[in-house]
Automatic annotation (TrEMBL):
InterPro entries, alphabetized: TPR-like_helical_dom_sf (IPR011990), TPR_2 (IPR013105), TPR_rpt (IPR019734)
Signal peptide: 1-21
Keyword Repeat attributed: yes
Short name of one Pfam family: TPR_16
Organism: Alterirhizorhabdus solaris
Protein name: Tetratricopeptide repeat protein
Top-level taxon of the source organism: Bacteria
TPR repeat spans: 106-139, 183-216
Amino acid sequence: MKPFALALFALVTLAPPPVWAKPPATEAPRRDPDEARLQEALVLIASGRVTEAMPLLDRIVTAKTKEYAGEKRRIYCARSMAETLAYMTMAAAAREDAVAMPPVLADAIFYKGFVLVDLHRDDEAEAAFRRAITLSPSHARYLAELGELYKRRRDWPTALATFQRADEAAALSPDDHRVFEQTRAWRGIGFVMIEQGRLEEAQGWFEKSLALDPNDAKARAEIDYIRQQRAKAAPPA
């Protein structure tokens, strides 16, 4: 997504501006009922009631898919202007007409994947994550969760490549999400490198995470683990 100056030039010169449906200024903003349903689903997920969340998520996906059915342009879901610019630039480079929509549809699909992982339905979860990423290719959390799925499968090359994509995408994360999403990607990279025997490189990623978030207990624990492994491998004095 770099450099941004080039991205902005491409957006202005080659692509139509993103369309966000807004009511006239004289009308009070209308709340999207699907956003309220998504929040309700997230409360259920947070409380461990994942099977109750699934019908709500399905309802959102069905409603939004129907709402967008007549759209001929490539649909992206963006949660920030930075992501919108990135997606419109992608579309411009591909000579596609595109439109940026709010993230409700992609979020609902992503959280379906999240629930499916919890239900040990990993193949369906992978399909959901991939569909969400198709709508939001530079969403760092979506990418990291897909990387986590590959990590559990011990598919180290694919996991590493996916976490690296999440690392790049975190540059576009909203300010209030960036630290969480950036460190999530870095820890994923570091974990895979441990499994590949690349301990020195792995430690560097965890140290980066601690530098950005000194309270990152997971990164600190991984550094301790690396030190223990090195101590075991060291020849006796």
